[in-house]
């Protein structure tokens, strides 16, 4: 048989024939209920996609490197691998520790240096002006050029692109880096990457800015104009959508609100005299990548497509329509229990980011939710990226998902939903007006509540947390945040006493345009600090910008709180809260429900007493009373329950009146009423709100208050 005649003897089935066969296999169950998937984005996904689903999509024929750029910015004719930058966050307790980690990691596969500075630095405060818990928190403390010099020791910035989130003002951190470049004889023209300012992200997470947004925009314009003239490969405007995912949002909100923020920044820069080409060339977007593999792929593709449309509306050239994307695997999906599962989560999320076309990527370490990364956890996270590049060869193909009917349909469906929400934000008057009205916050809170309800009822499964817990695990030890406030504050005071920067700061106060950057660098070279530059920028600004912040959290926190309460109970009493399983009759009758009950309680940190099956009610009641447990679950089959449950529940209550008696399964209402009259308190079943029941039981037996 020739390969040219393979399968020709088989007819090609129609969709109607396929659906008929599918419905027959469901044996009467609803096709829609069983095979359609409803997402948090309000998108209904079909079990199968065909060419007919995508043939009318206007962007389907576009090649990679062509508008609207959903297939990426690189053209096939460029004949190079589509390698993304390995841009791992490096969080260290000091500039010295950062330098050591940076040099080590750059030698082992990292290609972009991601500097994380602490909250005090981001706020434009020197250590002696900031709250103690903001010094060294989630980044290194830097306030003067010498700190940056130490942090970048051994690193040539002409060879390594940078990624730095500079917070709401940006200029103080940029001026420190530029002063270091000048002092060490390097060239600002060679700087690449992003030293980006994102005041909206600060508003979202903290609820306020220490300055007006107009002051922040003036700083952004100064940085952007300077970069255009002196460091054309450096991006200075950062749009982070990460807070929306970390607050419990979905892909639609991430896209719509990040694009609306990008438009606010565009408008602010245009008003300050920059051109659309100058602005877009210096913009960087950042997205968190969650666990829904195809939705996250579609999200990055839709982001580029929608941004292209927006820039086109502003009259931007084809080149200006390109979007640069940094991605990081989600913080919202990571757990503190069974933390090694986080390696698997990060791998699938990184895969989505790569297939979606991210330009740079951070893969979160498996212990990110627990403590600062160790050398081991940094290496595993970094090597995840390198394996995807070098062993999975994902960099060898541009837009590997392109042409998939499912991915193309999902990209379009997601883009339409995001565009509709984007227009609602514009109807509010832009992103800042929408935030002041509480519109994004309210919508994110609604979606977060929907997700929480799914997690609480275990419709959405978190492996190792609300399902399949590892009850024998030894939790990773959290590391307390080092208290370096007094040491750093003393260093700041000492530095200030040695310097005479008044004349340089006075000169700085005379400038408001891109010359502000030049004079800020001169001031730093004369000893000015982050705090000095920030004060000069805010010298005539006493207006705070205040909104309701997002509630940043992780998906697993509620169930983790149950485990933490149970662990604390163990330390206090010497034993865990305990559940006794009254397994009745042969194994075939009780095993399924006993297994379900054991896991149901294990996710809350309970110990399970599961002895041999009981053949008589008397044996089971005596064992339950003697167990010392305060909760008993009766496990058998529905047919046996009418005979077993009433006398067993009554006998247990007679022996221990305060015992909580539960039934595994969900009987009919009339039958349940009979069981409750005999002493059954409640039922556990597939539709139970697992979190709420465990929380109430912990309170009832004194595990939590």
The low-confidence runs, each spanning 5 or more residues with pLDDT under 50, are: none
Sheet/helix structural class: alpha/beta
Query: What is the fourth-level CATH superfamily of the largest domain?
Result: Methylmalonyl-CoA mutase
* Overall pLDDT level: 94
- Helix percentage range: 40-55%
Contiguous helical run count: 27
User: Can you tell me the CATH topology of the largest domain?
Assistant: TIM Barrel
* Rg for CA atoms: 29 Å
Q: Kindly report the spatial arrangement of strands forming the biggest sheet.
A: 3-12-11-10-9-7-6-5-4
Largest sheet: 9 strands, parallel
CATH architecture of the largest domain: Alpha-Beta Barrel
- DSSP strand tally: 18
Structural domain count: 3
Can you tell me the overall shape?
Answer: globular
Strand content: 5-15%
Q: Gap between N and C termini, in Å?
A: 75 Å
Q: Can you identify the CATH class of the largest domain?
A: Alpha Beta
Enzyme class: isomerase
Organism: Brevibacillus antibioticus
InterPro entries: Cbl-dep_enz_cat, Cobalamin-bd_sf, MeMalonylCoA_mutase_a/b_cat, MeMalonylCoA_mutase_a/b_site, MMCoA_mutase_a_cat
Cofactor: adenosylcob(III)alamin
């Amino acid at each position: 048989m020739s390969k040219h005649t393979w399968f020709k003897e088989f007819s090609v089935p129609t969709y109607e024939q396929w659906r008929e066969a599918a419905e027959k296999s469901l044996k009467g169950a609803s096709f829609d209920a069983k095979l359609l998937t409803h997402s948090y984005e309000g998108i209904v996904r079909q079990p199968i996609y065909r060419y007919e689903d995508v043939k009318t999509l206007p962007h389907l024929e576009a090649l990679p490197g062509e508008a609207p750029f959903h297939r990426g910015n690189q053209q096939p004719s460029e004949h190079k691998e589509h390698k993304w930058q390995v841009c791992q966050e490096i969080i260290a307790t000091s500039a010295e520790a950062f330098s050591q980690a940076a040099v080590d990691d750059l030698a082992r596969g990292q290609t972009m240096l991601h500097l994380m500075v602490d909250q005090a630095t981001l706020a434009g405060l020197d250590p002696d002006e900031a709250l103690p818990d903001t010094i060294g928190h989630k980044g290194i403390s830097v306030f003067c050029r010498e700190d940056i010099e130490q942090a970048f020791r051994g690193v040539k910035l002409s060879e390594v692109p940078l990624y730095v989130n500079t917070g709401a003002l940006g200029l103080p951190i940029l001026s420190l880096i530029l002063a270091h470049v000048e002092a060490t004889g390097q060239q600002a023209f060679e700087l690449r990457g992003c030293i980006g300012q994102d005041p909206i992200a600060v508003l979202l997470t903290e609820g306020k800015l220490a300055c007006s947004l107009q002051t922040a925009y003036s700083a952004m314009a100064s940085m952007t104009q300077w970069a255009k003239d002196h460091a054309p490969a450096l991006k200075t405007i950062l749009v982070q959508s990460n807070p929306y995912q970390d607050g419990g949002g979905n892909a639609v909100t991430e896209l719509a609100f990040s694009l609306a923020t990008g438009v606010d920044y565009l408008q602010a820069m245009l008003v300050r005299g920059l051109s659309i080409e100058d602005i877009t060339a210096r913009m960087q977007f950042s997205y968190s990548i969650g666990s829904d593999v195809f939705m996250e792929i579609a999200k990055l593709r839709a982001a580029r497509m929608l941004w292209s449309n927006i820039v086109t509306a502003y009259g931007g050239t084809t080149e200006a329509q390109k979007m640069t994307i940094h991605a990081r695997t989600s913080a919202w999906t990571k757990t503190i229990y069974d933390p090694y599962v986080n390696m698997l989560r990060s791998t699938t999320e990184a895969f989505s980011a790569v297939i979606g076309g991210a330009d740079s990527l951070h893969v979160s370490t498996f212990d990110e939710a627990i403590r600062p990364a160790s050398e081991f956890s940094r290496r595993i996270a970094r090597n995840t990226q390198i394996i995807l590049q070098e062993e999975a060869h994902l960099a060898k193909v541009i837009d590997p998902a392109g042409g998939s009917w499912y991915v193309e349909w999902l990209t379009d469906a997601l883009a339409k939903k995001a565009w509709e929400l984007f227009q609602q934000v514009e109807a509010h008057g832009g992103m800042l007006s929408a935030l002041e009205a509480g519109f994004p916050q309210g919508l994110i809170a609604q979606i977060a509540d929907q997700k929480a309800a799914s997690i609480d009822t275990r419709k959405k499964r978190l492996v190792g947390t609300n399902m399949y817990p590892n009850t024998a695990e030894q939790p990773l030890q959290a590391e307390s945040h080092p208290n370096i406030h007094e040491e750093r504050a003393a260093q700041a005071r000492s530095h200030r006493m040695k310097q005479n920067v008044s004349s340089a700061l006075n000169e700085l106060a005379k400038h408001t345009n891109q010359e502000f950057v030049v004079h800020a660098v001169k001031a730093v070279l004369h000893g000015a600090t982050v705090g000095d530059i920030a004060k000069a920028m805010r010298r005539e600004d006493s207006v705070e910008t205040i909104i309701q912040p997002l509630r940043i959290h992780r998906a697993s926190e509620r169930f983790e709180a149950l485990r933490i309460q149970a662990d604390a109970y163990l330390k206090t009493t010497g034993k865990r809260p305990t559940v006794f399983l009254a397994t009745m009759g042969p194994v075939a009758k009780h095993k399924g429900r006993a297994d379900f009950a054991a896991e149901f309680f294990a996710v809350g940190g309970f110990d399970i007493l599961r002895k041999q099956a009981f053949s008589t009610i008397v044996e089971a009641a005596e064992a339950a009373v003697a167990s010392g447990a305060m909760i008993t679950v009766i496990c058998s089959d529905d047919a046996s329950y009418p005979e077993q449950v009433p006398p067993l529940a009554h006998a247990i209550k007679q022996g221990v009146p305060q015992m909580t008696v539960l039934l595994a399964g969900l009987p009919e209402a009339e039958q349940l009423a009979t069981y409750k009259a005999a002493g059954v308190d409640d039922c556990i079943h597939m539709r139970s709100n697992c979190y709420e029941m465990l929380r109430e039981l912990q309170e009832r037996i004194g595990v939590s208050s």
